[in-house]
Amino acid sequence: MKKNNRQLCFYSFTVTLLTLLLLFWHYGYAPFGDNSLASHDAGIQYLNFYSYFKDVLSGKNSLTYTFSKTLGGNCIGVFSYYLTSPFMLLSVFFKKSQLHSFFDLLVILKLSLASFTFCWFLIGRFRKYLADRSDLVKNSCIVILSVSYGLCQYNIAQSSNLMWLDGVYMLPLILLGVYRLLYSGSVWKLTVPVALSILFNWYIGGINCLFSGIWLLLELCIYLISSDFSKKAISHCLRSIARYLTAMISGVLCSCVLFLPTVSAMRNSNRGALDFSTLLNFNFTGNFSTVLSNYVFGSVSKEGSVSMFCGTFAITGLIALFLSGKVSARLKTVLGSFAVLFVMILYWKPFCTVFSLFKAVSSFWYRYSYLTIFGILFIAAFFYLAFLDKESPFILIRSSVIFAGLLLLLRHNAKGDNALQQTCTTVLIAFFTAAAFSIFTAFTRQQLNLYRWTAFIAAAGLILGSTAYNTKLLMDEYHVSEDASYKLYSAITQKQIRDIQNMDQSLYRISQTTTQKMLPSNTTSNYDEAFAFNYRSISGYTSSPDDNQRDFLEHIGYTKCGENMNITNASVIGADALLSVKYTLSPYKINGLEEVSSIDNDQDKKIYRNPYALPMGLIYTDSRIKNEEADISNPFEYQNYLYSLLYGEKVSVYEPLDFSRTSEGDSKKHKAQFYSIDLKQGNYVFYGNIPWDALMDKAMLTVKNKYKTRYSWWLAPSVFYIPADQNESQATVSISSKAGYYIRPDAEQFYGLNLDTLSQVTQKISSSQPDELTIENGYVHAVCNATSDNQRLYLSVPYDKGWNVYLNGKKASYDLIDNCMYSIPLEKGENTIEMKYTCPVLYAGIAVSVFGILLTITVTLAENKKRRFKK
Fold this sequence. Notes:
Number of helices: 26
Strand content: 5-15%
Distance between the termini: 23 Å
Shape: elongated
Largest sheet: 5 strands, antiparallel
Oligomer: single chain
């Protein structure tokens, strides 16, 4: 790339960088203040994953398998979706308490890089129109459009999904690769960015790959109309399609080192299943007119209404192209058709399915709208770089007037309290920007330098100021103000976990009843703190969950929520004991748990020890307890079954409670249901579970007027704790929903956990432990002395196809308890058990990637040889 062109890319990068830095500094975003763009899932999940990645880099955690993921699991899917951006390496320069600053810095860098790569694309794509490298008007257009791409609506609105922004800055390189493949036959220039985009984030990389096919069709159409559809041109297009397929296949092959293991990991859950049902639904998700009515400052995307705002300069340029008499009817038809297509991929349901990678979407609407924004800017660039110098510059004023008229005409579609103000502001800025830039262009042509620079400053000020203004409005919409509280929470929780681990270096899990982010209804979706603070967990919320674990957790009382997590913040002592949860962090006392007073508590959460926690490895005798006795619909009886299995004979640590039920309202629209529960006397902890057949609308559960929690809907627990004082004989529980509820008839469950029985049972079970036991991320070693051939080693290690089990040096058979936990048959005498984890298909992925790289090199060498031969 020539020096002047490199300078334009640098200018685009720098303008975007400085604009964001100034906005962050002025409005107090981390590291300058308490605000941060780490909102939504960023605060719930991603910051925890960044902490985990820091531990991986320092050798404190594992990239392929970690016990920080729910009960333990393959982490390659987490890595490939959230953490493979090259910018993640900068995390080594930040402490765990500084991750809001790290997050904001990455937003700034990625958006600045997006401006850089878009500028690179424009220069490469329109190079034949840029012969005069000193053309101030065209150079200004390139920088303006590039900054508009970097600071478009999508990039700020989706900044919380930081990993998607890698796809935004890779898209221009992929589409430039498509163009170069068509005009110069260079396959590798498409292969390399495709491979990198998938490696940096496979999800958004896949979207880029799909869009590249549409872009190839666009470039082919432009090529054909420029060559009058000659036979030679058609033949060249067919060869280019073959090269494109070669490049795309090679790019995907090169990325298989991560892509194949990720696909394998996602098959552990229904998250890996594809949804083709809506491909035959030819409806639209919204009104097309909202595309324009929502093209205003500060607009946001909602279901049925997308915002593609990327500045008024872009939209006036797009309209001007269709007004221009210098643009051929054929080119207008092609660009106009593809403009409609770019909008249809957002609104037509089959396209929505395809570009959502065949998964149903219920949040972060129009998560691929940057594709359409790219299309808008491309059409605008076509006018500014190819036709503006042939047109009257004042065509932009006409274009802005038409844009203003359409906005005002469609104003009734605009939503929000400030819709009229936003519309009027957009209209005025569009007009004055177009006028200033038109005057600047006219003075430049007339070589009136003094006036030219005055007009340039006015136009640049309006464009840059309006871009910054829109960015500020969106930052107001998509931010949190919790950097200070996060630093405090992170420091305190790290200390608590470290103190526990220093005090007790045995094998156990830790749970929490509250996390950093709690809703008023005592619920949370922040289930990834084990990643952040590096401890063995029972919680997890990732894009690649393991359904065998989720099913097991639900069977023992921790209900599944959506496709990604289980609700584990309501401590169930019997279930926790089975899972080897020895310590629980909680702000409230839980009957049956013992407070650990030896560790100072610097926050509301105290540390409690579960005296009944079973070891993570134990020897038990295979008994006559059969699977048929297990009742997975009743978590209390199912726990009784598991304890009986490990104990060797039938035991009941949970005992059913008598209760009565009363209701309000008719059978379909109950307003409330009340339970009066008879409590047993003695050393008990009480629980309830009210199974439902369908989710209820904002139902609330009230337990003894002591606490309320949402129930039977998003983030709600299933099993709930019933606090009771000693000698208390009754407890009341009520559930209500304004829209009615769907409780399973006569299926309510109220039980008392007999702590004396639990103590007796767990002491006996725990008495038979391996002589040696090591459980690490991806490795298990145990030495057991079996007194008979019907003894087994139970390991609190969940099944994963990556585990290889060896008994006395030979590959061993094993059983699974509830399709989850390992149960390994022992031979009489001494047994040495080893379990080694290998990430499934990782080596196959490496081999395929090597093949893809060799294929790319071979094709490139063949291309170069062919070119030399032609010369």
